[in-house]
Amino acid sequence: MFAVALILLALAGGSTVTYFLMDAPRRRAERRLRDLRRDEIDLDLEREELDERGRRLDERARQLAATIAATDRRNAELTQREGEFGRRVISYDELVTQNQFLTSELRNALLHTSFLEQQQHANRSGASAVTEQRDRLGRAYFDEVLSTASRQIIPTNFTTMTRRIEDAAAIVRAAGYDLSRSDENTARARLLELYTQAVRAQALREEQSRVREQMREDEAQRRLVEAQTREAEDAERARLAAQEALNRAVEDAAGRHEAELQTLRDQLAVAEERLRRATPLAQLTRVGHVYVISNIGSFGHGVFKIGMSRRKDPQERVDELGDASVPFPFDVHMMIRCDDAPALEAALHHTFRSRRVNRVNLRKEFFQVTVEEIVAAVQEHHGEVKYVAEPEALQYRESQRTTDAQLQVMEHVHDAIAAERPNATDE
Length: 427
Known about the structure:
Blueprint (H helix, E strand, L loop, with lengths): L1 H87 L3 H15 L2 H44 L5 H17 L6 H73 L4 H20 L10 E7 L1 H4 L3 E7 L5 H7 L9 E8 L2 H11 L14 E3 L2 H11 L12 H8 L2 H16 L8
Antiparallel strand pairs: 1-2, 1-3, 2-4
Helix pairs in contact: 3-4, 4-5, 5-6, 5-12, 9-10
């Protein structure tokens, strides 16, 4: 058994040695093949490099050929210019001939006179064309200003639009365009006509708005009266019923049902409270707007009214304040919506209490302060706020520019329109 193992081991070792001895040529062949492949790659790289060098040499050859061709063209041009220069050389005989020609031209006075006359005629034609162009542009500019003013005219800017027309007329006249007074007066008349139409349209809109507002107020009042009447009738019926029940209970119970009597008394108190609340009461909600407004035409700069409104549209309150009782409408600097408008208004009034304009009647909510101070106070008591620093004051500024003559024209227009409304009431 041991001998068999030795034999097998010997056979295995011999096979292994034989394998390695016979595999050596194969390995050498594979190494040789790899070397050949590397050589082939190197040859391909060298071939590509040679091809690139060949392309560069061809490009260089083409450039040299182009340079040679350009040099040949340059030589040909130089030769041609040399020939032309040679042909331009003037001989003495040619100079004599040219001198005679110039002498004959100088003696031709008629030709020179004709040339000068033609030149002067051309100058006159050019000046006329410039004048026509200037007049055309001047007229177009004036018409455009008139058209713009006609589109922008409203009942409160008649003075500004009139001044635009006057300035446009002065500009075109200064440029040399002779704008006639008749044309300027026609433009003024057209502007006045449009202003009259704008005032009439505004008066009509105000009258219609007043009628609609009156109708809305009447309807709201009617509904309020009806609601209060129904509430009062219901409360009165409930009170009478409770009173009657109480009387019956007092008569029947004779003091034996105190709890029931107290219940009836409570019902009577509720009914009486309902009856009391049926009368008109002020609005109890505290949600509203705190407004900051100014009127520099009426009170000057730096005077602000700080007030409050619970209306859905607080601008209505501002418009009411700027009605016929003051010369100009108010400008809104801040409109602050808050959940507790009375509290914010009171806080601002307290902050600026030493800056009141009227220190006797505290219901006059005018203060001598700056916008920046009001903004700081609002930010302290309420939070961030949007505001307008400079008042627009359109009617005030327009009034400052209006002359007596223009005022007379506008008064005439308003008087004429007022005469068309015989039923108009005083504001």
